[in-house]
Design a protein that fits this description.
0% strand
């Protein structure tokens, strides 16, 4: 494992037990079995480490969006693209469930939650820009995101008992029910 990834993994593992504010650079270095100079070669402090992790995951979610919605404007029926996007997003969250569980349910990081919800809002607005108009799209998107976050939170809090495909189908079906 690359040292940077080892440091990132160590922080998340420590956050399973400790609040972020309780974690020290020394604890991260001990967990990662590295010296402090190695930590500082990658990060200025623990805040930079956490911000880097958050930004990396948000960026990966953007990559998923851009790949799944690349030709959205060319298709009349947006539903298959939305379904594919949800599936890929939930699969990504599942692959990185320790990170998402820690930062959304165990020790919620407000800046991460805000960035995630903002990312989802932007993504849904992109879909709505290319589809039939809703009377109040901002409210539809807010309602959809709230429900999606609630499902995700419950799923992560319970250690993801259902496979990602089930969760993405639940979210997708709920979107279809409210978008009539």
């Amino acid at each position: 494992m690359v040292k940077k990834q080892l440091i990132e993994t160590s922080l998340i593992q420590l956050m399973e037990t400790y609040h972020f504010r309780e974690i020290t650079i020394k604890m991260i270095c001990t967990e990662a079995q590295i010296n402090r100079s190695t930590f500082y070669a990658y990060f200025d402090d623990k805040y930079a480490l956490l911000d880097s992790l958050i930004d990396s995951h948000i960026m990966q979610l953007e990559v998923i969006l851009n790949e799944d919605f690349a030709n959205l404007h060319l298709t009349k029926d947006k539903r298959p693209s939305v379904e594919k996007y949800l599936t890929h997003t939930i699969e990504y969250i599942y692959e990185h469930r320790q990170f998402f569980r820690v930062l959304l349910t165990l020790h919620p990081a407000q800046n991460f939650t805000q960035k995630l919800l903002s990312n989802w809002r932007t993504n849904y607005m992109k879909v709505l820009e290319t589809s039939a108009t809703l009377q109040y799209p901002d409210y539809f998107v807010s309602y959809t995101i709230g429900g999606q976050f609630g499902v995700l939170y419950f799923w992560l809090q319970n250690d993801c008992p259902e496979p990602p495909e089930v969760i993405s189908t639940i979210i997708y079906n709920n979107i279809l029910k409210i978008n009539r």
